[in-house]
TrEMBL record:
It comes from Thalassotalea litorea. Residues 62-506 form the Glycosyl hydrolase family 13 catalytic domain. This is Alpha-amylase. Residues 1-18 form the signal peptide. Keywords: Signal. One of its GO terms (biological process) is carbohydrate metabolic process. Pfam families: Alpha-amylase (PF00128), Malt_amylase_C (PF16657). CDD domains: AmyAc_bac_CMD_like_2.
């Protein structure tokens, strides 16, 4: 009888040692033990052409262009003619434009290519309202014009050139888009002054949310636009307040999460059929003009799910007609619950989402130092994502971001006395988990240079170019003597080199990208997590040690021979039992030998 490579495999021995508290980490020697047997240098140019590539072949780099590199100082102050998009430039303030732009990003494409990056995800780049409340639109999420690139970042032609140059390196470019809201232009007479300035300096909550029941009973706000802002939105229909919910500020719970204003931003009425078609047309035009390779979609859960049911298929069909057959969209749903998240890829028709569940599990395992069973429970819920056109292998993995903060910050804030060597080892292990677990890895810009940060949001959006922000420049970066006052594009940085190493393994072995994953072993303390990655013709054994001591584990496998991809401290094999000894905070990968697979299938 032939053995299927996808059959269940059972682990047969328990872990020999348990983990200990990281508060003693300064006495623990972290050994560099995970090493590839042969490092095959693979980059985007060695992969299939970008037009043909599956998203699961990608390594993403998530970048905020304003904070990356200033390639053209002439655009630092934005538009010379459109006042709503002019100004907001202050390199010393975390909440204002710092001068990074599309030209700067283009200049650094070789830096990304050499790190193994195959896809760049840009924060929103459409024209923003430059200043509102106590900050600027440097992040891109305050759009007023969906047809023009924000002048602080460059021009439409410069964006096209960036995409063209990235494509020459076989690197894809993804846009971050918003369908939930626009910039804060609409005010309410009941809670704003006639000039709308009463809002300034306040926080969301000034205009209490009015429920659907209140609105139905006639208890509504009276929307208005301050003189001079009547026609600043493009396309023009967005200037009409009837196409917005106008129900006041979201409390982030219940119906207000969908119908309320997101921190005061104008909440688009995506229940309205005219609006649905209008938003579809907006992003069809974006695809037609710029030919991006896909979209990351912001604030997905704050839009009624029926909208996505129409939006996603329409754009995918249009992209194919525009010659982008592998166009891919993934949404942001800020929740760690797989059952909740999955409804947006099944019922909601989106191809994928950012896997906040993965981020939460990695944080629990390597920051909070819970058992590896946290990861196993996450993977056990992958069945929620299975439908006709998607599954968990298409989820987008990450360990930290521009909202919650960097993984290094989460780690150091929890364990301020942790040694640098242990912090780096945990970060490297988190990256290995991100690359070799099912899903698509995303590197957050600056992580490869040891950026830590002081918190979330603005405090996690440091400059890669020399910064003038005091609160950034006093950070103690990991793995370097540099600070953010320096340019941080060091290709010899330990984390840059490690990410390039992981990418080369990932890209050299298709079976570590597109394959079935099955958990072999986990435990309720820090220690071993093991799973297989299996295709019709290949099988990989992937093992992690999250503990601060060596861990030994034996696995009964279906084949007689496993050759090393990333070596463990020690590995022996007999009678289809693989015994692995892993150093602290390390991982190993072994691949079943082709002849052993063939022999097993003949049995």
């Amino acid at each position: 009888m032939k053995n299927s490579l996808a059959l269940a495999i059972a682990a047969v021995m328990s872990v020999s040692l348990a983990g200990c508290s990281s508060e003693k980490s300064d006495t623990v020697e972290i050994i560099e033990s995970s090493a590839a047997v042969e490092w095959h240098k693979v980059s985007a140019q060695n992969l299939a052409p970008y037009q043909q590539r599956d998203v699961r072949d990608e390594v993403f780099y998530f970048v905020m262009p304003d904070r990356f590199e200033n390639g053209d100082v002439n655009n630092d102050n934005g538009s010379a003619t459109k006042l709503e998009s002019r100004g907001g430039f202050d390199q010393t303030d975390t909440g204002y434009y710092h001068g990074g732009d599309l030209q700067g990003l283009q200049n650094k494409l070789p830096y990304l290519h050499d790190m193994g990056i195959t896809a760049i995800w840009l924060t929103p780049i459409m024209r923003n309202q430059a200043v509102q409340h106590d900050g600027s639109g440097y992040h891109g999420y305050w759009v007023v014009d969906f047809t023009e690139i924000d002048p602080h970042l460059g021009t439409n032609e410069e964006l096209k050139t960036l995409i063209e140059e990235a494509h020459k390196l076989n690197i894809k470019v993804f846009f971050d888009i918003i369908a939930n809201h626009t910039a804060d232009v609409i005010k309410y007479k009941e809670c704003h002054g006639e000039d709308g300035k009463q809002w300034l300096g306040e926080t969301a909550g000034l205009c209490d949310y009015k429920t659907l029941a209140q609105v139905a009973a006639g208890d509504t706000y009276t929307p208005f636009v301050v003189s001079g802002s009547d026609d600043i939105k493009v396309p023009a229909w967005l200037n009409d307040s009837k196409y917005y919910h106008n129900q006041g500020d979201s409390t982030w719970e219940g119906e207000s999460a969908v119908y309320g204003d997101f921190a005061g931003l104008d909440d688009i009425d995506t229940d309205n059929p005219y609006v649905v078609q209008g938003m579809i047309d907006i992003f069809k035009d974006v695809i037609t003009e710029f030919k991006p390779d896909g979209f990351r979609i912001d604030t997905v859960k704050h839009v009624n799910i029926e909208f996505w049911q129409e939006f996603s298929p329409a754009l995918l069909e249009h992209a194919k007609a525009q010659g982008i057959p592998k166009f891919f969209m993934f949404g942001e749903v800020y929740s760690a619950d797989p059952e909740y998240l999955s409804q947006f890829t099944t019922k909601g028709n989106l191809q994928s989402i950012l896997d906040f569940g993965f981020q939460s599990a990695v944080q629990a395992t390597l920051v909070d130092q819970q058992g590896t069973d946290v990861m196993a429970k996450l993977f056990a819920a992958d069945t929620f994502y299975k439908d006709a056109d998607s599954d968990a292998s298409m989820l987008v993995n990450f360990t930290g971001n521009h909202d919650m903060g960097r993984f290094a910050y989460l780690l150091k804030s929890k364990h301020p006395q942790m040694s640098e060597s242990e912090a780096l080892a945990r970060i490297k292990l988190s990256n290995a988990m991100m690359y070799f677990s099912r899903g698509v890895p995303v590197v957050y810009y600056g992580d490869e240079q040891g950026f830590v940060g002081d918190g979330h949001d603005r405090d996690s959006r440091q400059d890669m170019m020399p910064s003038k922000v005091p609160s950034y420049n006093d950070d103690d970066l990991l793995g370097t003597t540099a600070t953010t006052a320096d340019a941080n594009f060091d290709q010899e940085h330990i984390l840059y080199k490690d990410l390039a190493y992981l990418a080369s393994i990932y890209q050299y072995h298709p079976g570590l990208r597109i394959s079935e994953q099955e958990t072999l072993y986990s435990q309720d303390t820090p220690g071993i997590l093991a799973f297989t990655r299996t295709t019709e013709t290949e099988q990989y054994l992937v093992v992690f040690n999250t503990a601060l001591e060596e861990q030994k584990q034996t696995f009964k496998m279906p084949f007689a021979g496993y050759e090393p991809v990333v070596i463990a401290k020690d590995k022996t094999e007999q009678d289809r039992e693989v015994k692995i000894n892993l150093a602290p905070l390390s991982f190993a990968i072994y691949k079943a030998q082709a002849q052993a697979q063939a022999q097993a299938q003949e049995e």
